[in-house]
Automatic annotation (TrEMBL):
Residues 217-319 form the Fe2OG dioxygenase domain. Its EC number is 1.14.11.20. Its cofactor is Fe cation. Keywords: Iron, Metal-binding, Oxidoreductase. SUPFAM superfamilies: Clavaminate synthase-like. Belongs to the iron/ascorbate-dependent oxidoreductase family. Pfam families: 2OG-FeII_Oxy, DIOX_N. GO terms for molecular function: desacetoxyvindoline 4-hydroxylase activity; metal ion binding. This is 2OG-Fe(II) oxygenase family oxidoreductase. Coiled coil: none annotated. InterPro entries: DIOX_N, IPNS-like_FE2OG_OXY, IPNS-like_sf, Oxoglu/Fe-dep_dioxygenase_dom. The gene is 25498293. PANTHER family: OXIDASE, PUTATIVE-RELATED, OXIDOREDUCTASE, 2OG-FE II OXYGENASE FAMILY PROTEIN.
Length: 373
């Protein structure tokens, strides 16, 4: 998965603004959005201005309208409780595409240390950060700003450090020393939890617990540690624009700043941070193979006016690169379709899907639409 090069940036028709040069200069600095803040900017560069903002409209925080919080405590020893939890997951995945889990067996101190480790990486001296800066996401450890910097119409106000966990994992010595120990520990624990969640998701659609794992839905695991600096003009840009995730499942650890919102029944619903919880969201490919029993929904992150905001997203995908695993085909699971419930989607390769997903960028549109029958 290589981030497109700079010749793919369309030059603005406005003769007073050269987006190409602004984007290129930003990328060449290798300092990221954090570098802009460090330089003392009071106005954000035009490349971050998002013309599709609807921040002020339909954003609600209603205690009666929150994504479900599901408690996993005791489900491995109490069959009745497990069945209740599976029912809640089934409902959450169909109605929301999101839920939070608590009592997931990853100690809270590990979650807190991971947040601190990611923050420490992004706040170390810029010359140290630059050593890791690359736009080639095939590297095992990467530091960059915006995967779609050269293809999106507006850049998001965030930087990222990423780690390949599977199938070809990083070597310990490749991890920046400032966060090495916690990244190694967290990556193992979050992978184990991911496999456990996939078992519950399999059961929630009436399949054997090992079904999704055996289907290779968790073969590729990639961690992205996002850093959202305080934004001097948060009304003009996004932390992450409206999008769905182009994978099977995401597990998200977020700090206490807030800003994550989910589009539910045409309203943006805030996802209040819950200390110790992890957010689970359905990806596009899980919607495809479950034939819409589970839904991948739009979500976004507002730019913080305080902060920084830290989040750690773990992506589960059959392959993280359009070139790798190109022959792997996915379609609606045969056990889930019938004459009364015919397939909605074509059988597609990971390469077909990811090529379209990355070329499209985070434009707010559905990544599944072209693959419908």
């Amino acid at each position: 998965m290589v981030v497109k090069n700079s010749n793919q940036v369309e030059k603005s028709t406005n003769s007073t603004y050269d987006r190409y040069n602004e984007v290129k200069a930003f990328d060449d600095s290798k300092a990221g959005v954090r570098g802009l803040v460090e330089s003392g900017v009071s106005k954000i560069p035009q490349m971050f201005h998002n013309e599709m903002l609807d921040i002020a409209t339909k954003s609600i925080c209603d205690s009666k309208l929150n994504i479900p919080i599901i408690d996993l405590k005791g489900i491995d020893i109490n069959p009745t409780l497990r069945e209740e939890v599976i029912g809640k997951i089934r409902s959450a995945c169909h109605e929301w595409g999101f839920f939070q889990v608590i009592n997931h067996e990853i100690p809270i101190n590990v979650l807190d240390e991971m947040i601190h480790g990611i923050r420490n990486f992004h706040e170390q001296d810029v010359n140290v950060r630059k050593e890791f800066y690359t736009r080639d996401l095939r590297e095992k450890v990467v530091y960059f700003s915006n995967t779609t910097l050269f293809t999106s119409q507006a850049a998001d106000w965030r930087d990222t450090v990423g780690f390949v966990v599977a199938p070809d994992p990083f070597k310990p010595e490749e991890i920046p020393p400032i966060c090495r120990d916690i990244v190694i520990e967290y990556s193992q624990k979050i992978s184990d939890l991911g496999f456990r969640i996939f078992e519950l998701l399999s059961e929630a659609v009436g399949l054997d617990p090992s079904y999704l794992k055996e289907l290779k839905c968790a073969e590729g695991i990639y961690i992205m540690g996002h850093y959202f600096p305080p934004c001097p003009e948060p009304e003009l840009t996004m932390g992450v624009g409206k999008h769905t995730d182009g994978n099977f499942m995401t597990l998200l650890l977020q700090d206490q700043i807030g800003g994550l919102e989910v589009l539910h029944e045409n309203s943006w619903v805030k996802v209040p941070p819950t200390h110790g919880a992890l957010v689970v969201n359905v990806g596009d490919l899980l919607q495809l193979i479950t034939n819409d029993k589970f839904v991948s929904v739009h979500h976004r992150v507002l730019s913080p006016n305080i902060g920084p905001r830290i989040s750690v997203a773990t992506f589960f995908l059959s392959s993280r690169d359009p070139i790798e695993g190109a022959s792997k085909v996915f379609g609606p699971i045969k056990e889930l379709i019938s004459e009364a419930n015919p397939p909605i989607y074509k059988d597609i390769t990971i390469q077909d899907f990811l090529s379209y997903f990355h070329a499209k960028g985070l434009d707010g549109s559905s990544s599944l639409e072209p693959f419908k029958l």
